[in-house]
Design a protein that fits this description.
Length: 357
């Protein structure tokens, strides 16, 4: 019988990591994961069910996701050679780090931001270098570039809009980083559909720019579909390390169908944007709460009371949000995804009740 010291076999770069934590508590109203609160429109589900019956699930999926790429290329008015499909945009972050970095290299990003940049980098033996955002959750490009250059970073990541703060960074500052950084600049536009702001068109002028997008936020979170837009040379190199069949047949087919019938999804997006603005307006009426501007489908706010207490109060009322207060710059901050009108009303009522205590 084997009884090895398994911990001693695990690489130190992995032992030191903490896994990315997502609350998965059973609550009636889940406003913690930045998902679309609406089910896919019935006509889309009906149309897909007909397509599903024709799928040959005993066969491997298209390794190049050709039909899905063609649908994306049509929407973006971009060459198909500029596209790569990922199992979520997280996989594409991993591939970029594999292609452009060796163990011991550095990457840079503003802070606070999406935690997976750092987690994936550390798992590969890389050095994450963070640059603190200012009080407006923005940054100065020249100072940020100094941090990136001093650390000899190979890649910089810019979440746009930024998760968890919700805002888009200054367009001029992002443009300055793209134009001046002598490495790869990844603009992560996972929440593009809510901001309408993009740097995808800049790829024609800047071959060091990579733009990431996701379908998770607009209704396909369960299928894990992300895509990258970049210079064809970058795409070719990413395909060298991309696992074969990384995108399954069901994900490819439903994603393609959704993109080709986007009007109903756009209606859901428009409703989310209306609800976001309504929630921000109502939260501003709640005492002892500071609400930050949002270009995304979630709202970050700071409370004068302990965030943990408010988090528990909301959960006791059947509402799950994201507690961000573990981050030193996000003390007493929480993040709420925009839900349905009914869910948002429950959240706002519970917030008013908590402050009224």
């Amino acid at each position: 019988m084997s009884n090895l010291d398994l911990l001693s076999l695990i690489q130190g770069k992995v032992r030191s990591l903490k896994a990315y934590q997502v609350e998965n508590i059973d609550c009636a109203v889940k406003l913690h994961a930045n998902e679309n609160p609406f089910q896919l429109p019935e006509e889309l589900l009906s149309g897909f069910s007909k397509s599903f019956k024709k799928l040959q699930l005993n066969r491997y999926p298209d390794p190049d996701s050709r039909a899905l790429k063609e649908s994306i290329a049509k929407r973006l008015n971009a060459p198909i050679e500029n596209l790569i499909i990922g199992n979520g945009s997280d996989e594409l972050i991993l591939l970029l780090l594999q292609v452009f970095c060796n163990e011991g290299d550095s990457i840079s990003f503003p802070d606070p931001t999406f935690a997976m940049y750092s987690i994936i980098a550390r798992g590969l033996g890389l050095n994450p270098c963070s640059f603190p955002l200012d009080e407006h959750w923005d940054f100065d490009a020249r100072s940020f570039l100094k941090t990136a250059n001093d650390s000899e970073s190979r890649i910089v990541f810019l979440s746009y809009p930024n998760n968890p703060t919700g805002n888009c960074f200054s367009e001029d500052q992002v443009r300055h980083v793209i134009e001046c950084f002598e490495g790869i600049v990844v603009v992560d536009e996972a929440y593009y559909d809510f901001s309408g702001k993009s740097f995808a068109r800049k790829i024609e002028q800047h071959n060091n720019l990579v733009v990431l997008r996701s379908l998770s936020k607009i209704g396909l979170a369960g299928l894990r579909v992300g895509f990258g837009i970049a210079d064809p040379l970058v795409i070719d190199q990413l395909n060298k390390v991309r696992l074969p069949y990384n995108s399954n047949t069901v994900s490819q087919t439903l994603a393609e169908y959704l993109l080709n019938h986007f009007d109903r999804v756009q209606q859901q997006i428009d409703t989310i944007l209306e609800e976001r603005d309504r929630m921000i307006g109502e939260l501003k009426k709640v005492g002892s709460v500071t609400v930050f501007p949002s270009d995304s489908n979630f709202i970050m706010f700071r409370t004068e009371q302990l965030a943990e207490d408010l988090f528990r109060h909301l959960m006791d009322n059947g509402i799950l949000v994201r507690d961000l207060s573990a981050h030193p710059k996000l003390k007493n901050c929480l993040r709420a995804t925009v839900g349905t009108r009914e869910e948002n009303d429950r959240f706002l009522e519970a917030m008013a009740l908590a402050v009224g205590k």
